[in-house]
Amino acid sequence: MTEDVRTTWLLDSDPALRWQVERDVIHDPPEVWQATRARVPREGFGARLLTLQDPDGQWAGGSFFPHDATEDEDGQPWTATTWSLNALREWGVDAAALGDTAARLDANCRWDYDDLPYWGGEVDCCINAYTLSNGAWLGADVRGIRQWFLDHQLADGGWNCEWIEGSTRSSFHSTLNTLKGLLWYERVVGGDDELRAARHVGQEYLLERRLLRRLSDGEPVAPWATRLTYPFRWRFNALNALDHFREAARFDEVPPDPRLADAVEVVRAARRADGMWLQEGREPGRVWFHVDVEPGEPSKWLTLIGTRVLDWWDAAAPR
Protein backbone atom coordinates (compact mmCIF):
# COMPACT_ATOMS: atom_id res chain seq x y z
CA MET A 1 0.00 0.00 0.00
CA THR A 2 1.37 3.42 -0.96
CA GLU A 3 1.40 6.29 1.50
CA ASP A 4 -1.32 8.07 -0.50
CA VAL A 5 -3.58 5.03 -0.40
CA ARG A 6 -3.00 4.58 3.32
CA THR A 7 -3.78 8.24 3.96
CA THR A 8 -6.99 7.98 1.93
CA TRP A 9 -7.93 4.90 3.98
CA LEU A 10 -7.32 6.80 7.23
CA LEU A 11 -9.31 9.81 6.07
CA ASP A 12 -12.31 7.64 5.24
CA SER A 13 -13.25 7.66 8.91
CA ASP A 14 -15.56 9.01 11.54
CA PRO A 15 -14.87 12.73 12.24
CA ALA A 16 -13.56 11.73 15.70
CA LEU A 17 -10.63 10.01 14.00
CA ARG A 18 -10.42 12.00 10.78
CA TRP A 19 -9.59 15.36 12.37
CA GLN A 20 -6.61 13.80 14.13
CA VAL A 21 -5.39 12.31 10.85
CA GLU A 22 -5.66 15.75 9.27
CA ARG A 23 -3.75 17.37 12.14
CA ASP A 24 -1.14 14.73 13.03
CA VAL A 25 -0.51 12.70 9.86
CA ILE A 26 -1.00 14.97 6.86
CA HIS A 27 -0.53 18.24 8.78
CA ASP A 28 -3.40 20.16 7.27
CA PRO A 29 -3.73 23.81 8.33
CA PRO A 30 -5.74 24.38 11.54
CA GLU A 31 -8.82 25.64 9.73
CA VAL A 32 -9.16 22.25 8.02
CA TRP A 33 -8.86 19.93 11.00
CA GLN A 34 -10.73 22.28 13.30
CA ALA A 35 -13.68 22.24 10.92
CA THR A 36 -13.69 18.45 10.97
CA ARG A 37 -13.36 18.40 14.74
CA ALA A 38 -16.39 20.68 15.02
CA ARG A 39 -18.44 17.96 13.30
CA VAL A 40 -17.77 15.36 16.02
CA PRO A 41 -20.71 16.28 18.31
CA ARG A 42 -23.04 16.46 15.29
CA GLU A 43 -22.06 13.34 13.35
CA GLY A 44 -20.95 9.75 13.90
CA PHE A 45 -19.55 8.44 17.17
CA GLY A 46 -19.77 11.72 19.08
CA ALA A 47 -23.33 12.54 18.12
CA ARG A 48 -24.44 8.99 18.79
CA LEU A 49 -22.94 8.91 22.28
CA LEU A 50 -24.36 12.32 23.19
CA THR A 51 -27.88 11.10 22.38
CA LEU A 52 -27.42 8.30 24.93
CA GLN A 53 -26.93 10.69 27.85
CA ASP A 54 -29.53 10.46 30.62
CA PRO A 55 -31.57 13.56 31.55
CA ASP A 56 -29.73 13.76 34.89
CA GLY A 57 -26.38 14.10 33.10
CA GLN A 58 -25.22 10.52 33.53
CA TRP A 59 -24.80 7.66 31.08
CA ALA A 60 -26.28 4.24 31.90
CA GLY A 61 -27.40 5.58 35.28
CA GLY A 62 -24.03 5.22 36.98
CA SER A 63 -20.67 6.85 37.62
CA PHE A 64 -18.16 4.10 36.80
CA PHE A 65 -20.49 1.11 36.40
CA PRO A 66 -23.97 1.21 34.85
CA HIS A 67 -26.87 1.01 37.27
CA ASP A 68 -27.73 -2.53 36.11
CA ALA A 69 -24.19 -3.97 36.24
CA THR A 70 -23.92 -7.50 37.60
CA GLU A 71 -20.95 -9.51 38.85
CA ASP A 72 -21.49 -12.28 36.29
CA GLU A 73 -21.05 -10.04 33.21
CA ASP A 74 -18.38 -10.98 30.69
CA GLY A 75 -15.85 -8.24 31.35
CA GLN A 76 -16.30 -4.77 32.75
CA PRO A 77 -19.09 -2.72 31.19
CA TRP A 78 -17.84 0.44 29.47
CA THR A 79 -21.12 2.36 29.20
CA ALA A 80 -21.30 4.41 32.40
CA THR A 81 -20.65 8.12 32.83
CA THR A 82 -16.89 8.17 33.28
CA TRP A 83 -16.15 5.98 30.26
CA SER A 84 -18.59 7.96 28.10
CA LEU A 85 -17.01 11.27 29.11
CA ASN A 86 -13.54 9.84 28.44
CA ALA A 87 -14.55 8.90 24.92
CA LEU A 88 -16.15 12.24 24.09
CA ARG A 89 -13.18 14.16 25.46
CA GLU A 90 -10.63 12.02 23.62
CA TRP A 91 -12.63 12.34 20.39
CA GLY A 92 -12.24 16.12 20.62
CA VAL A 93 -15.79 17.14 21.50
CA ASP A 94 -15.94 20.76 22.67
CA ALA A 95 -17.17 21.06 26.25
CA ALA A 96 -19.87 23.46 25.12
CA ALA A 97 -21.62 20.58 23.36
CA LEU A 98 -22.34 19.03 26.76
CA GLY A 99 -24.07 22.13 28.12
CA ASP A 100 -24.61 21.98 31.88
CA THR A 101 -23.42 18.37 32.22
CA ALA A 102 -20.90 19.30 34.93
CA ALA A 103 -23.62 20.83 37.10
CA ARG A 104 -26.02 17.94 36.52
CA LEU A 105 -23.36 15.42 37.51
CA ASP A 106 -22.54 17.46 40.59
CA ALA A 107 -26.19 17.27 41.59
CA ASN A 108 -27.02 13.70 40.59
CA CYS A 109 -23.96 11.46 40.23
CA ARG A 110 -22.26 9.62 43.09
CA TRP A 111 -19.39 7.16 43.10
CA ASP A 112 -19.98 3.46 43.58
CA TYR A 113 -17.36 3.70 46.34
CA ASP A 114 -18.88 5.12 49.56
CA ASP A 115 -21.44 7.20 47.65
CA LEU A 116 -18.90 10.01 47.32
CA PRO A 117 -19.72 13.12 45.21
CA TYR A 118 -18.66 12.80 41.60
CA TRP A 119 -16.32 15.76 41.17
CA GLY A 120 -14.63 15.07 44.49
CA GLY A 121 -13.20 11.81 43.19
CA GLU A 122 -12.75 8.60 45.19
CA VAL A 123 -9.80 6.34 46.13
CA ASP A 124 -8.82 4.76 42.81
CA CYS A 125 -5.94 6.48 40.96
CA CYS A 126 -7.23 5.67 37.48
CA ILE A 127 -10.78 6.79 38.26
CA ASN A 128 -9.49 9.99 39.81
CA ALA A 129 -7.25 10.63 36.80
CA TYR A 130 -10.22 10.34 34.44
CA THR A 131 -12.27 12.62 36.69
CA LEU A 132 -9.47 15.18 36.86
CA SER A 133 -9.29 15.26 33.06
CA ASN A 134 -13.04 15.32 32.54
CA GLY A 135 -13.58 17.96 35.21
CA ALA A 136 -10.90 20.22 33.74
CA TRP A 137 -12.48 19.77 30.30
CA LEU A 138 -16.03 20.52 31.48
CA GLY A 139 -15.08 23.33 33.86
CA ALA A 140 -15.84 21.53 37.14
CA ASP A 141 -13.87 22.31 40.28
CA VAL A 142 -11.46 19.38 40.58
CA ARG A 143 -8.73 21.12 42.57
CA GLY A 144 -9.26 18.63 45.35
CA ILE A 145 -8.35 15.73 43.06
CA ARG A 146 -5.26 17.61 41.89
CA GLN A 147 -4.09 17.77 45.50
CA TRP A 148 -5.08 14.13 46.08
CA PHE A 149 -2.51 13.01 43.51
CA LEU A 150 0.23 15.02 45.18
CA ASP A 151 -0.69 13.46 48.50
CA HIS A 152 -0.78 9.89 47.15
CA GLN A 153 2.36 9.70 45.03
CA LEU A 154 4.37 6.71 46.23
CA ALA A 155 8.00 6.69 47.27
CA ASP A 156 9.15 5.07 44.01
CA GLY A 157 7.64 7.95 42.05
CA GLY A 158 4.46 6.47 40.64
CA TRP A 159 0.96 5.61 41.77
CA ASN A 160 -1.03 2.42 42.39
CA CYS A 161 -4.80 2.02 42.56
CA GLU A 162 -4.24 -0.67 45.18
CA TRP A 163 -2.66 1.73 47.67
CA ILE A 164 -5.92 1.47 49.60
CA GLU A 165 -5.13 -2.24 50.09
CA GLY A 166 -1.67 -1.37 51.40
CA SER A 167 0.43 -1.52 48.23
CA THR A 168 3.55 0.64 48.34
CA ARG A 169 4.84 -0.26 44.86
CA SER A 170 3.66 1.68 41.85
CA SER A 171 1.77 0.19 38.91
CA PHE A 172 2.47 0.78 35.21
CA HIS A 173 -1.28 1.08 34.56
CA SER A 174 -2.05 3.44 37.44
CA THR A 175 1.00 5.59 36.83
CA LEU A 176 0.30 6.08 33.12
CA ASN A 177 -3.35 6.94 33.70
CA THR A 178 -2.37 9.39 36.41
CA LEU A 179 0.23 11.05 34.20
CA LYS A 180 -2.31 11.47 31.42
CA GLY A 181 -4.74 13.07 33.86
CA LEU A 182 -2.14 15.45 35.30
CA LEU A 183 -1.03 16.51 31.82
CA TRP A 184 -4.58 17.15 30.70
CA TYR A 185 -5.17 19.28 33.81
CA GLU A 186 -1.99 21.26 33.21
CA ARG A 187 -2.89 21.92 29.60
CA VAL A 188 -6.46 23.06 30.31
CA VAL A 189 -6.39 24.64 33.77
CA GLY A 190 -2.72 25.48 34.10
CA GLY A 191 0.07 23.92 36.08
CA ASP A 192 2.46 24.95 38.80
CA ASP A 193 5.91 23.88 39.91
CA GLU A 194 4.60 21.32 42.40
CA LEU A 195 2.25 19.63 39.97
CA ARG A 196 4.78 19.64 37.15
CA ALA A 197 7.44 18.15 39.42
CA ALA A 198 5.07 15.34 40.44
CA ARG A 199 4.34 14.56 36.80
CA HIS A 200 8.01 14.53 35.88
CA VAL A 201 8.84 12.19 38.79
CA GLY A 202 6.03 9.89 37.67
CA GLN A 203 7.32 9.93 34.11
CA GLU A 204 10.75 9.03 35.44
CA TYR A 205 9.24 5.94 37.09
CA LEU A 206 8.26 4.64 33.64
CA LEU A 207 11.38 5.87 31.86
CA GLU A 208 13.68 4.08 34.32
CA ARG A 209 11.88 0.90 33.29
CA ARG A 210 12.06 1.74 29.55
CA LEU A 211 8.22 1.49 29.57
CA LEU A 212 8.62 -2.29 29.30
CA ARG A 213 10.75 -3.81 32.05
CA ARG A 214 10.94 -4.45 35.74
CA LEU A 215 13.55 -2.32 37.45
CA SER A 216 14.67 -5.15 39.72
CA ASP A 217 15.97 -7.53 37.05
CA GLY A 218 15.34 -5.89 33.67
CA GLU A 219 12.93 -8.62 32.60
CA PRO A 220 9.75 -7.80 30.62
CA VAL A 221 7.07 -6.56 32.97
CA ALA A 222 4.21 -8.55 31.37
CA PRO A 223 2.79 -9.48 27.94
CA TRP A 224 0.25 -6.67 28.10
CA ALA A 225 3.04 -4.09 27.73
CA THR A 226 3.59 -5.04 24.08
CA ARG A 227 0.01 -5.96 23.16
CA LEU A 228 -1.37 -3.13 21.05
CA THR A 229 -5.12 -2.74 21.34
CA TYR A 230 -7.63 0.10 20.97
CA PRO A 231 -9.54 1.55 22.80
CA PHE A 232 -6.80 1.74 25.43
CA ARG A 233 -9.29 1.83 28.36
CA TRP A 234 -7.26 1.58 31.59
CA ARG A 235 -4.54 -0.78 30.39
CA PHE A 236 -0.94 0.17 29.82
CA ASN A 237 0.71 -0.72 26.54
CA ALA A 238 3.78 0.64 24.78
CA LEU A 239 1.80 2.66 22.23
CA ASN A 240 -0.52 4.17 24.84
CA ALA A 241 2.51 5.22 26.90
CA LEU A 242 4.48 6.56 23.95
CA ASP A 243 1.55 8.71 22.84
CA HIS A 244 1.50 10.26 26.33
CA PHE A 245 5.24 10.92 26.23
CA ARG A 246 4.82 12.51 22.80
CA GLU A 247 2.15 14.85 24.17
CA ALA A 248 4.17 15.59 27.32
CA ALA A 249 7.36 16.34 25.38
CA ARG A 250 5.52 18.74 23.11
CA PHE A 251 3.89 20.44 26.11
CA ASP A 252 7.21 20.71 27.96
CA GLU A 253 9.02 21.67 24.74
CA VAL A 254 11.69 19.01 25.13
CA PRO A 255 13.00 16.34 22.73
CA PRO A 256 12.07 12.65 23.10
CA ASP A 257 13.85 10.88 25.94
CA PRO A 258 16.33 8.29 24.57
CA ARG A 259 15.02 5.73 27.07
CA LEU A 260 11.85 5.44 24.99
CA ALA A 261 13.81 3.68 22.25
CA ASP A 262 12.95 0.11 23.23
CA ALA A 263 9.21 0.86 23.30
CA VAL A 264 9.47 2.69 19.98
CA GLU A 265 10.99 -0.41 18.41
CA VAL A 266 8.12 -2.53 19.74
CA VAL A 267 5.68 -0.22 17.97
CA ARG A 268 7.80 -0.11 14.81
CA ALA A 269 8.04 -3.91 14.69
CA ALA A 270 4.25 -4.20 14.90
CA ARG A 271 3.76 -2.04 11.81
CA ARG A 272 3.03 -4.13 8.73
CA ALA A 273 4.74 -3.61 5.40
CA ASP A 274 1.68 -1.68 4.21
CA GLY A 275 2.09 0.82 7.06
CA MET A 276 -0.88 -0.41 9.08
CA TRP A 277 -1.16 -1.83 12.57
CA LEU A 278 -3.46 -4.74 13.39
CA GLN A 279 -5.89 -4.76 16.26
CA GLU A 280 -4.34 -7.27 18.69
CA GLY A 281 -7.27 -7.70 21.04
CA ARG A 282 -10.40 -6.20 22.51
CA GLU A 283 -11.33 -5.66 26.14
CA PRO A 284 -14.41 -7.75 26.97
CA GLY A 285 -17.42 -5.93 28.32
CA ARG A 286 -20.62 -4.19 27.36
CA VAL A 287 -20.26 -1.13 25.09
CA TRP A 288 -22.69 1.32 23.54
CA PHE A 289 -21.12 0.57 20.15
CA HIS A 290 -17.72 -0.48 18.83
CA VAL A 291 -15.42 2.22 17.45
CA ASP A 292 -12.68 -0.03 16.10
CA VAL A 293 -12.27 -3.29 14.23
CA GLU A 294 -12.25 -6.88 15.38
CA PRO A 295 -8.93 -8.42 16.50
CA GLY A 296 -6.72 -9.35 13.57
CA GLU A 297 -7.99 -6.58 11.28
CA PRO A 298 -6.13 -3.38 10.34
CA SER A 299 -7.00 -0.70 12.88
CA LYS A 300 -7.32 2.91 11.79
CA TRP A 301 -7.00 4.11 15.39
CA LEU A 302 -3.78 2.18 16.01
CA THR A 303 -2.44 3.27 12.62
CA LEU A 304 -3.16 6.92 13.40
CA ILE A 305 -1.48 6.76 16.82
CA GLY A 306 1.40 4.55 15.70
CA THR A 307 2.12 6.82 12.74
CA ARG A 308 2.20 10.01 14.77
CA VAL A 309 4.39 8.43 17.44
CA LEU A 310 6.96 7.17 14.94
CA ASP A 311 6.88 10.43 12.98
CA TRP A 312 7.58 12.35 16.19
CA TRP A 313 10.38 10.03 17.24
CA ASP A 314 12.03 9.82 13.83
CA ALA A 315 11.94 13.58 13.36
CA ALA A 316 13.33 14.54 16.76
CA ALA A 317 14.85 11.63 18.65
CA PRO A 318 18.58 11.89 19.43
CA ARG A 319 20.75 9.49 17.49
Identify the notable features of this structure and list them briefly.
single chain, 319 residues, mainly alpha, two-stranded antiparallel ribbon, 2 strands, 47% helix
Low-confidence stretches: none
What proportion strand? under 5%
Structural class by SSE content: mainly alpha
Shape: globular
Percent helix: 40-55%
Rg computed from alpha carbons, rounded to a whole number of angstroms: 19 Å
Element order: H for helix, E for strand: HHHHHHHHHHHHEEH
Tally of individual helices: 13
Largest sheet: 2 strands, antiparallel
Structural notes for this entry:
The protein is mainly α. Helix content is 47%, strand content 1%. The chain contains 13 helices and 2 strands, in the order ααααααααααααββα. It starts with a helix and ends with a helix. The relative contact order is 0.11.
Short description, anyone?
This protein is mainly α and 319 residues long. It has 13 helices and two strands; from the N terminus they run H-H-H-H-H-H-H-H-H-H-H-H-E-E-H. Helices cover 47% and strands 1% of the residues.
Please outline the helices and strands.
Blueprint: H1 3-11, H2 15-24, H3 30-37, H4 44-51, H5 81-90, H6 101-108, H7 125-138, H8 143-151, H9 172-188, H10 193-208, H11 238-252, H12 261-270, E1 277-278, E2 298-299, H13 300-316
